[in-house]
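Appendix B. Chain record.
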Amino acid sequence: MKGRKREVYQALVNAKGGWVGGPALANVACGGSEGLRRLRELREMGYEIEKKKVDPKHNYYSYRLGSHG
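Structure tokens predicted for this chain:
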């Protein structure tokens, strides 16, 4: 794995089981504007990535690497 996908994966690993906000994965230093697409690609590769809605009033999610990551 390399490039932006690796950066998104590393951000999830660095969170050590904690949640990472969507904007943190879509910033220039991490996944860029395609950061959330990298999450889908990681799932397709077999990584378990959990998703939760942060606030029911907004379309804002956080993500974390599941137990098989």
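Further analysis of this model is presented in Appendix C.
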